[in-house]
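Fig. S4 source data, part A: sequence.
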Amino acid sequence: MTMSWPYAHLLINHFPVVLSVAALAAAILALVLGRRGLWLTAMAALTMAGLFVYPVFLTGNQADHALNDPWYIKHGTIEAHDAAATWALWVFLLVGVFAAYSWWKSLKKPEEGIPGWVRAGVVIGSLLTASTVARAAYLGGKIIHESPVLQLKDAPAGLPPAVVTELRGDTTAGH
């Protein structure tokens, strides 16, 4: 299998999703338990999510160009996903910079507690990142899940026999 932009996007697009949800979980636990280590974990997860978001966005744009609006993808689904991903990109970049700075400052002074404004920023930032990336991921899933080709009982007419065999999952045909 050769690497393509759509494949590369699918390989890395889960990092911001998982990291933002992990940051939100750590921030909620930190609020409840008041543990410094949980605040640092939330900051680290938000920082890492901010680092991953641009490569995910870049590969997504390149995947869009590589696909070039194929017939089997419902019109408008890629555009809706891209619009949501653009919002997520800016939210992640801003929150990631805030989290990186807060994490760095907190590590420099381990004897001090995490200031209230940092705790508030981490909670709000993790809520923002988790919600914007959830919307982008949901709309990204619709690109395939709402594909008109999935509604067909049989392969469209005119496809080469090898493709039809592959679509059916029949790997023993012709052997």
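Fig. S4 source data, part B ends here. Residues 5-168 form one domain.
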